[in-house]
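Onboarding guide, step 5: your first structure request.
Type a short instruction followed by the sequence, for example:

Predict the 3D structure of this protein.
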Amino acid sequence: MVARTGLYAVLAANVAAVLYFFSAAGFASNALIVLGRLTGLTGALLMAFQLVLVARLPWLDRRIGMDRLTSWHRWTGFSVLWALLAHAVFITFGYAQSSSLDPVNQIIDLAETVEGVLRAVVAFGIIIVIGVVSARFARRRLAYETWHFIHLYTYVAVVLAFTHQVAVGTSFTSSSAATAYWYGVWGVALGSVFVGRLVLPLWRNWRHQFRVSAVVPESHNVVSIYITGRDLDKLPARAGQFFLWRFLTKDRWWQANPFSLSAAPDGTQLRLTAKAAGEGSAALRHMKVGTRVFAEGPYGAFTAMHRTRPEAVLIAGGVGVTPIRALLEELHGHAVVIYRVASDQDAVLYGELAELAQMKGAELHLVSGPVVPDKLAPAELSRLVPDITDRDVFLCGPPPMMNAVIGNLRELGVPKEQVHFERFSLAG
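The system replies with structure tokens like these:
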């Protein structure tokens, strides 16, 4: 909550600064041009904020979570698109109002005669393409790698937009303070991406030299991969977090998959457990010992860091048991573990959960059966955990199950700040 409030406060302070420098630069006589400049500055600020959200900075990620940051990044991206569309329309019609040109010829004339405008047009075209492929109807039809490759052109658009702002932005050039402010905004935004997305992952992988040390089938469609490396006790990973894993074989090096740690980090090895949900995860069963691994992370706010109560309820669904099993290993205080599966045969890692529960004095409930009727309905949750409103609830499982349980917890009156979950996804 503190990190989220701080992020909002920083954004609000920057909005105030932008409005101050905008008004200090003076207003044009044409109202449409004034609106065009204001929406352009708004789009520039949102674009910079968008970069910070997706920079994967450890301080923010541990406190807010990649899923929420990615979701905010997505909606900020659509806001950027609409702000820049308004900027283009207002500016074009504003200048057309002051000349004898129609809007189409006016934008052509600006692109040909005003430095930086053509770059802005290209940047806007790139942003439109990215906005289209990020819409849900298109996103569902694209492989993550394809979507990600197209999305990388965002950085081209950012550079073009920045040079456009330097060339023609009246607010940018109105004073040395305004110039310093905008250079600072873009420097922080691009620097955050450079450090969080490039420098930190490269540094950690060079330092730790991750390799596959063992491949252990857990069931007919679930496998655990053990990872070793150098100085793993210096890796700031916690139970409940996940990594983006790239296994550096000739046919898999370009694929990144988000898998949670299925055991609490012990300083000597990491373990992930994956279900064969697609071609990539199914191939893990045949991974060779000694394979080099490039791991980005750790990521996620699904950790004991956010506990508000001394006792907890851990609710897992299907392969969502992996971070729950790791959390049980790390948590202190009494815990109740509820493991929801379609059938007892689907309860992977159940033996480990039972051993951990016995060792830590936790209660373990295996709940199996079809989706209907809801076996985690409010009445059932109250029966299994009578004091559930006085506990932290950690929840991980398939999205439909999570949505249903979150609604049930709300109906039971469990405070929102006591409910912890994370939706594991690369692209929101």
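Each response can be followed by summary notes, for example: The chain is about 55% helix and 15% strand.
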